[in-house]
Design brief:
The complex is a heterodimer of chains A (174) and B (178). Chain A starts with a helix and ends in a 17-residue tail after the last strand. In chain A, the strands form three sheets. Chain A has a three-stranded antiparallel β-sheet. A two-stranded antiparallel sheet of chain A has the order 1-4. In chain A, strands 6-7 form a two-stranded antiparallel sheet. Helix content of chain A is 17%, strand content 16%. Chain B is α/β, with parallel strands linked by helices and 178 residues long. Chain B has one domain: 3-Layer(aba) Sandwich (Rossmann fold), CATH 3.40.50. The chains are: A alpha+beta (174), B alpha/beta (178). At the A-B interface, strand 5 of A face helix 4, strand 7, helix 5, strand 8 and strand 9 of B.
């Protein structure tokens, strides 16, 4: 009786097979709509910083070196891969890749840094007028995030700090 | 050197202790998922233990919160000497979505030294296995910091002289290089 039940159990065990994945030896594909770490395309990016304004984790920093060059830095530490940056990007420069094997011993390995050319206004040479408080909340203009401390600073200005301000030139937008 | 040391010290089996210091329990579920027969990490000798005094590896989930930072520090100091710390998930790596609120001190590395980071929210169970495999030296890490530089303008530019217009018509011409 007991031997028969043991044999039956052994047969069941043989029939079930092995379910364990042979993962680190064999690659494991993900689903089609899986969102992995975002990949930035520097050739398509126009530097609008919409991704930085929409990031819920404040992971994308923007720093304006001068009027022509803007640095956009993706840190990737606390990124939740929500895909809002890829959704808001007007040029589709951000794609959510299927890359999930991002284990590392230095967290700085997750960074992506983009040096972008910014165009000036081709009529007047400058881009922005003086900001109203509402536009300051929307963070239009030049931005000064702290790249060394990796901190997002809630501030934007119409003029850079080191550039002379031309008051007599009234720029009309809209 | 650290890699060789890890391979020598932790060559046989890793006993892990998982410490949640204020996360949302998502990474906890993924870590327990790793221990199930489907992603069987006991084939690498990894075993979940209930006390930090038995453990070689501490799996940290959740940010270092103001209420739990001291307990996390005590649990780290209770582990015997060759010890590794894994920060699993976006909260432990970078402080999480609520990194700037009053109760969150920041990432786990502000309280205890962290050896390996597994970002993700939550990371897939395969990503956690990959992190463990990186730690014991089975595979190499794949990510590296990337720096891009634009060489030319991504949008066409128009020369200012063309904007003045001829014959009451504004003519736009694309200028290749400015």
């Amino acid at each position: 009786m007991s031997i028969a039940s043991k044999l039956k159990e052994a047969m069941v065990g043989l029939k079930a097979g092995c379910v364990t994945l042979d993962y680190p030896a064999q690659p494991r594909p993900v689903a089609e709509n899986f969102r992995g770490r975002p990949v930035f395309d520097a050739q398509k990016c126009i530097g609008c910083a919409g991704c930085a304004n929409n990031c819920p984790a404040r992971e994308i920093l923007v720093f304006d070196v001068c009027q022509e060059i803007r640095i956009l830095q993706y840190l990737g530490r606390r990124c939740t891969y929500c895909g809002r940056c890829a959704e808001v990007c007007p040029e589709k420069a951000i794609t959510m890749s299927h890359d999930y094997e991002t284990a590392t011993n230095k967290i700085g390995d997750m960074q992506q840094r983009l040096d972008l050319f910014m165009s000036t206004c081709q009529r007047c040479g400058r881009c922005f007028k003086e900001t109203s408080p509402l536009e300051t909340l929307k963070l239009k203009g030049y931005r000064f995030d702290d790249l060394a401390q990796e901190r997002w600073i809630f501030r934007s200005r119409a003029y850079l700090e080191n550039e002379p301000v031309v008051d007599d030139l009234k720029i009309e937008l809209d | 050197m650290l890699k060789n040391l890890c391979q020598r010290m932790f060559g046989r089996s890793l006993w892990v202790y998982h410490a949640n210091s204020g996360g949302c329990n998502g990474c906890d579920i993924e870590v327990l998922n790793v221990l199930t027969p489907y992603y069987d990490v006991e084939r690498f000798g990894i075993k979940l233990v209930g006390s930090p005094r038995h453990a070689d590896v501490m799996l940290c989930q959740g940010p270092a919160m103001r209420a739990t930072a001291r307990a996390l520090r005590c649990a780290y100091e209770a582990m015997p000497a060759p010890k590794l710390v894994f920060a699993i998930g976006g909260c432990a790596c970078g402080g999480g979505i609520w990194h700037d609120t009053y109760a969150v001190l920041g990432p786990v590395e502000k309280v205890i030294p962290v050896n390996f980071y597994i970002p993700g929210c939550p990371p897939r169970p395969e990503a956690i296995i990959y992190g463990v495999a990186v730690a014991v030296g089975l595979v190499d890490k794949k990510v590296a910091p990337v720096e891009f530089k634009q060489l030319e303008m991504p949008i066409p530019r128009y020369h200012p002289a063309d904007l003045s217009g001829r014959d009451e018509m504004v003519v736009y011409e694309k200028v290749e290089k400015l």
